[in-house]
């Protein structure tokens, strides 16, 4: 069974930092690209960052570029998101996610964890 369990969220003041973690199980983590997405109150899901399976390629939304850093430890089946310089608009539920084959050949399904709440407020 695929499981993604996020942790590390909390309440932080603007300008502060948090480090999110996501422990994965039920699939070959080291072979899969992973991503973080978030959902602000009353809004839809927003892609935040992606890291390829080997960890050598990373991509960021313009809104977090230069402030967030995605990384992974394939030996620990764990994905991270280091968030610095947090802003009030970063408030939301953060999910780690991955796309895995599902059903018919060529069909993928997105798996997400339960999420961790990040609140940036003074």
What is the strand and helix layout of this fold?
Elements: E1 3-7, E2 10-12, E3 18-25, E4 34-39, E5 45-51, E6 58-60, E7 68-73, E8 78-83, E9 92-101, E10 108-112, E11 116-120
Parallel strand pairs: 2-11
Antiparallel strand pairs: 1-3, 3-8, 4-5, 4-9, 5-6, 7-8, 9-10, 9-11
* Global geometry: globular
**Tell me about the biggest sheet?**
7 strands, mixed
The N- to C-terminal Cα distance equals: 40 Å
Task: Write the H/E string, N to C.
Answer: EEEEEEEEEEE
What does the radius of gyration come to?
Answer: 14 Å
What fraction strand? Answer: over 45%
Structural class: mainly beta
Q: What's the overall average pLDDT, rounded?
A: 96
Number of strands: 11
Helical coverage, percent range: under 10%
The total of helices stands at: 0
Parts with pLDDT < 50 across at least 5 consecutive residues: none
Name its key features:
seven-stranded mixed β-sheet; single chain; 0% helix; four-stranded antiparallel β-sheet; 122 residues; mainly beta
Please tell me about this protein's structure:
The chain is an all-beta fold and 122 residues long. The chain is built from no helices and eleven strands. It has strands at 3-7, 10-12, 18-25, 34-39, 45-51, 58-60, 68-73, 78-83, 92-101, 108-112, 116-120. Strands 2, 4, 5, 6, 9, 10 and 11 form a seven-stranded mixed beta sheet that branches. The chain has a four-stranded antiparallel beta sheet with strand order 1-3-8-7, with no helix packed on it. The model has no long low-confidence stretch (mean pLDDT 96).
């Amino acid at each position: 069974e695929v499981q993604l369990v996020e942790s590390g969220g909390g309440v932080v003041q603007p300008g502060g930092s948090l480090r999110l973690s996501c422990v994965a199980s039920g699939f070959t983590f080291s072979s899969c690209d992973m991503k973080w997405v978030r959902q602000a109150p009353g809004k839809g899901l927003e892609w935040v960052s992606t890291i390829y399976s080997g960890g050598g390629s990373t991509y960021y939304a313009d809104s977090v570029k230069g402030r967030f850093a995605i990384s992974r430890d394939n030996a620990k089946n764990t994905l991270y998101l280091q968030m610095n310089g947090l802003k009030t608009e970063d408030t939301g539920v953060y999910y780690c996610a991955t796309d895995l084959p599902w059903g018919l050949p060529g069909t993928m399904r997105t798996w997400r964890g339960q999420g961790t709440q990040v609140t940036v407020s003074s």
